[in-house]
Amino acid sequence: MKLRTKDILGLEYLSSEEISFILDTARSMKKISTHSTKKVPALRGKTIINLFYESSTRTRTSFELAGKRLGVDVINFNFSTSSTSKGETLKDTVVNLQAMDPDILVLRHSAPGTAKLIAETVAASVINAGDGAHEHPTQALLDLLTIKESRGTIKGQHVAIIGDIAHSRVARSDIWGLTKMGAKVRVAGPPTMIPPCIEKMGVKVFYSVDKAIQDVDVIMCLRIQLERQNKYLLPSLREYARFFGINRISLSRAKENVMIMHPGPINRGVEIASEVADSKSSFILGQVANGVAVRMALFYLLAGEGEENVTH
Amino acid sequence: MKLRTKDILGLEYLSSEEISFILDTARSMKKISTHSTKKVPALRGKTIINLFYESSTRTRTSFELAGKRLGVDVINFNFSTSSTSKGETLKDTVVNLQAMDPDILVLRHSAPGTAKLIAETVAASVINAGDGAHEHPTQALLDLLTIKESRGTIKGQHVAIIGDIAHSRVARSDIWGLTKMGAKVRVAGPPTMIPPCIEKMGVKVFYSVDKAIQDVDVIMCLRIQLERQNKYLLPSLREYARFFGINRISLSRAKENVMIMHPGPINRGVEIASEVADSKSSFILGQVANGVAVRMALFYLLAGEGEENVTH
Amino acid sequence: MKLRTKDILGLEYLSSEEISFILDTARSMKKISTHSTKKVPALRGKTIINLFYESSTRTRTSFELAGKRLGVDVINFNFSTSSTSKGETLKDTVVNLQAMDPDILVLRHSAPGTAKLIAETVAASVINAGDGAHEHPTQALLDLLTIKESRGTIKGQHVAIIGDIAHSRVARSDIWGLTKMGAKVRVAGPPTMIPPCIEKMGVKVFYSVDKAIQDVDVIMCLRIQLERQNKYLLPSLREYARFFGINRISLSRAKENVMIMHPGPINRGVEIASEVADSKSSFILGQVANGVAVRMALFYLLAGEGEENVTH
């Protein structure tokens, strides 16, 4: 099987077969990370450029590690010192990078649609590492992998996504992925954080967390963006924590084997209480580990020749 | 053949034979970039330190990619977090790096002559990646390679360099290189941007772009440094664009097969109109690709043992 | 022989046998750096994360080079763009990195004890690259290696450490290491910079440099931290230089073959005069070279399988 497009722009554009194929490849990749020599030079001689216009050490590091484990040369292109500060357009920056002949561009940008625009411009494969509030497909893929590994299947799982649904690219990508794979998705959050017409994406809306998490298999907390917190959306963090934070009491009302997930970095005591983040119900660190595997899988599927046996 | 010196400080210090030798080596290197595995570990185990005291993601990335394609370990030394902020002299920083035994130092610095000073201080080869308004030899070498590839020869080509000749290290290196290789060079720009006695470098001075570009084979635009634009040199960007910018009208007055070149990043609508930058006369992206090849060639010639067959 | 712990947190926690073992391994590693191909892929497939919460290009570069010479993949985690600015705790950042399965974390942090805290939290080996004013073990190990190489033995050497003993992690680590290896240590500095009860660490206190350096084999200058200089500790830099700086006159009063050492970066004319820093008594650049060797040794001992012959 092959992916139909050269790019990974969002879960909206992948079929359920493609998603399953990526998840299966990621599970093979995880085996590499358990070797003493955590490296298979399947992509030796390939070049990946990490082009991050929003700072994110965590995601960038995950992509970088994924590349290095496959023998790829990874170049980090630091937005803050880049030529954009010299008046160059994003498109010019990217076609210039393309002239250096990379195989994959990993792009994070604050403007929705940037990854698609760039993908249409360059010959290299583009992986969207987050474009504004639009999509963050590798996050959703690692979330799906985490659920599949733990539950055996995604189909039929009930998942509650809690938080700022309106401004979250993670929520959008997760909703696309989960519904395509047959999960039942609910969203909950303050009314200011629930986008109008979100039901059209195939989800049920709750305004009470207690009701939203009843009988679900997975609770996905979203991060409250402290650094760009909007006063008009939230009266206070304390109020958010009280009404929408997941704590021991919420956990006691949920299914006993509920999975707690969070894309990180977590704000302890805001969207998730420490007692929950550090409990055995938490799959947060497993998500991080799966992030490397999913990114390795995408690199392999997009840049690999298909002739090499990745698990030898 | 071998280069006569351990360093590449400027085109002023290279003979035409050395320049030809570097360009020929760069053409071999370009073949590597067309392989599916864009890597030949000819310099495996060698170390290159990128020491940039002026920010430049583009040039730094080009050097980094060039190194990685030859199997070199590349270390980026970030000026802004370096010990210079702790009161250490540049020379002390460099002799300390030398003590870690790198093979090549790639140095960019705002002070003319810095590369030479450092080259005399350390055992490693030094490649000048730009020293103030003095020289930027790898840029000129990639320009020469671009002309040679397209025209078969540099000798006898008529080249017009347009812009701030007085403050441009690119212009100085290009003039040295072009005249050594037998091209006929003209320069044009506002009177405040033409240095006195520039004719001594073997160029003809024009104050009108229209006249300067008549019958030339190559038009090289220089970048107007928006970020350090000096009010005393330019009444306004609009006026510069009108009198010295290269646009469709200029193109219609030039030879039909004229090459348009620019060291990048470009300021669309200032020194070059979008309709020209994106036209089939534009060789700007070819220059970027040649930049990687030229830097690979220099690394190979300076750090290679000469025993390995780079094209196998 | 093997090290007893998975981490290198300080010289306080290493036995003299372990220190000797590390120094012997470092001497083998130095031979690699003299090869034309300065690389032995003994640790191929291993991953090291440089996690620096205080800026230090020099030390970070030394660790990075050491890793690359052993074939390790080195990831630089830049504190200033990291998720800590998003409200994540240090511990959460580190357990997230651990989830990506690195072999070694190199950690620098301004808070004493951070390395120990993190070492207890993660499965990876932790190397303390400086924790506040507590310890900087790799600096002390490279100092010990420099003395041993020059003098044949550390035992019985008389060493004077001059400067801000109270706030120097270098001084603390050196004192632990030197006394464990049988050297006789003196410290000297302004009274405000001598910690109370320092004699309990087995050193003699002097308030006059002239007396402190009499008949010693080694003078170790400490760096005056210009960037965080405290007015209450020092009347002025000029006064410090006059009374505690090492200059030609101090040198004339010391043993003829005295070794002058400094952890760098040096403040010329403050704690050390240029005439001394650049004299044949100065071992400062040798210290830098030994820094790479010591860090290679630690990587090899902590992450190596022990089956490979590092010197082949």
Q: Could you explain the architecture of this structure?
A:
Three copies of one chain form a homotrimer. The first copy, chain A, is an alpha/beta fold. Chain A is built from eleven helices and nine strands. In chain A, strands 7-6-5-8-9 form a five-stranded parallel sheet. In chain A, strands 2-1-3-4 form a four-stranded parallel sheet, sandwiched between helices. Chain A starts with 15 loop residues before the first helix and ends in a 9-residue tail after the last helix. Mean pLDDT of chain A is 91; it is low at 307-312. Chains in contact: A-B, A-C, B-C.
Average predicted confidence as pLDDT of chain A: 91
**Oligomerization state:** homotrimer
Which sequence of SSEs, written as H and E, runs from N to C of chain A? HEHEHEHEHEHEEHEHHEHH
Helical residues, percent of chain A: 25-40%
Q: What's the number of extended β-strand segments of chain A? A: 9
Radius of gyration of chain A over alpha carbons? 19 Å
Strand order of the largest sheet of chain A: 7-6-5-8-9
Largest interface, counted by CB within 8 Å of the partner chain's CB: A-B, 27 and 30 residues
Contiguous uncertain segments of 5+ residues of chain A: 307-312
Give the end-to-end Cα distance of chain A, rounded to a whole number of Å: 20 Å
Query: Hey, roughly how much beta strand do the residues of chain A contain?
Result: 5-15%
* Main pleated-sheet profile of chain A: 5 strands, parallel
